[in-house]
Amino acid sequence: MADSPRRTGRPRSAAADRAILDATRSALVDLGWGRLTMGDVALRAGVAKTTLYRRWSNKSELVVDAVAVLFDELELPDRGSLRADVEGVVLSFAELLERPETRTALMAVVAEATRDEALRARIRTAIVERQKHLVVEGRRRAQARGELPPDPPGPEGAAEAARAVDLVFDVIAGAVVHRCLVSAARVTPRWARSLTALLLHGLAATSPGRGPRPSGQTAAPLLPPRGAAGGTGPDGGVQKPAGSV
Amino acid sequence: MADSPRRTGRPRSAAADRAILDATRSALVDLGWGRLTMGDVALRAGVAKTTLYRRWSNKSELVVDAVAVLFDELELPDRGSLRADVEGVVLSFAELLERPETRTALMAVVAEATRDEALRARIRTAIVERQKHLVVEGRRRAQARGELPPDPPGPEGAAEAARAVDLVFDVIAGAVVHRCLVSAARVTPRWARSLTALLLHGLAATSPGRGPRPSGQTAAPLLPPRGAAGGTGPDGGVQKPAGSV
DNA sequence: GTCTTTCGCTACGGCTCGTAGCGTAACTCA
DNA sequence: TGAGTTACGCTACGAGCCGTAGCGAAAGAC
Q1: Nearest Cα to A79, choosing from A205, A223, A192?
Q2: What superkingdom does the record give (chains A, B) (predicted)?
Q3: Which residues numbered 156-195 in A keep a CB inside 8 Å of some CB on B?
């Protein structure tokens, strides 16, 4: 883990590292998390069990490292529009989650992490933060194209932009993960289109039937007055102040 | 599980059932999924280990049953507007996920289910489908208020509506779950407001700083073109018609 | 060549799983 | 009331995995 420069003695076998990580992914596919044993991984990797424990102190950490690299294949080529970029990344993320080792491992590790702060931190840095650049990049491009408003100036503007990135990341990744792993349904191109439409245009776009449009009132002004947190919503509705919850 | 009416012999103790499920939730909080053992649950419940195995054949099924009821407390009181309804359900779902037994159990069970079709089905019926009525209800109300367009007529319209419900459910639940359990961040009222704004108005609303609005183009009219489903939208934006859902 | 570290191998105590067998408790039906 | 049936608590067991220790050998650094 720590790349402490070992000066003397027999160096650790890089081949063993690779073999172990490969074996871990393979065992994950065949056995799932619950039935995956360290002994079996060692056997598959052609390595002694003790060698595993010399590198990773437990199953969780081994699996995090084995899986994290899988997410690195996610990319965000410029597809020309925000819409296309979102749709593309949704589809490639879903494709990644279709693969047995990814879905099994991701959920298992996240589950284990609910009780393990160190593991949670490892996931955050090894996977979440590492992939967040996709949102940053897509957002930057959209702003350059004029599809999204520029960030407000000043430090508070930057903080707000960071929050927006976090939000969008959670929404997109969360929707795909939930669809794949909880609802246990496939991410089809049609679904990706729907999700993208929802993200771009809001809920009103999700049932876009050619049905007649009521009147203008649903098309509330796009931007809620942010300043007034507890103010009366601009929705034209009867609701209590949104901040009351 | 099956309520096969047992006619004769000593009946199963309902008190034991309750004690076991309570003990399961309690053990989940203290130990997490990985360290939870059947023996420990039996001990906490004041019950013999064999009694557990007479009712549930393995840990996963026990935990699903122990946790499913927790989600039933989710409700959707009419808060007067779509905005308030969404925000309310996001916050109460998040509150539910803050509780250790819920978060631990949900993820663990979902993780286990990635390798177990039967368990996946159990989760779908015991949790997902059971809670989807929240979306159906909120949507129906919003349509009645004129905040969302009505469903298109005919069977195809119904299918489209069902897809919309599934999508919204995955997006909302997914975002909250991802935020809580993967990103390991708290769901604050502010975050709930931002998510709601995104859902209602689309991405352009996520960085709504009071900064100057460029021109009209980002604040595209909320509602996609009336009549023409596939027509070129008057959105003034760059995107293709939203009606392709 | 010597020193240091890793390697594969074997063995071990400790823990959990899931099952079996026993005698007893609780309830139904005649 | 008594016989039959089922659930109960308890104990014990084989099997499997975990994580560690100790060994001699291999592989580089100096």
Answers
A1: A192
A2: Bacteria
A3: 157, 160-161, 163-164, 166-171, 173-179, 181-185, 190-191, 193-195
Q: Could you tell me if B64 and B119 are in contact, meaning their C-beta atoms sit under 8 angstroms apart?
A: yes
Judgement on whether residues B171 and B182 belong to the same structural domain of the protein: yes
pTM exceeds 0.85, yes or no: no
In a domain, A224, yes or no: no
Please tell me which residue, A145 or B219, carries the higher pLDDT value: A145
User: For A119-129, what is the mean pLDDT?
Assistant: 81
Indicate if the pLDDT at residue A214 is higher than 80.
no
Shared domain for A25 and A128, answered yes or no, is: no
> Which residues on B lie below 8 Å from A107 (Cβ)?
107, 110-111, 114
User: Quick one: which of B198, B144, B190, B145 has its CA closest to B168?
Assistant: B198
Same domain, B97 and B176: yes
Residue B14, classed as helix, strand or coil, is helix
Centre a 10 Å sphere on the Cβ of residue A74 and count the other Cβ atoms it contains.
Answer: 15
B205 touches chain A (CB under 8 A): yes
User: pLDDT above 70 covers what percent of chain A?
Assistant: 80
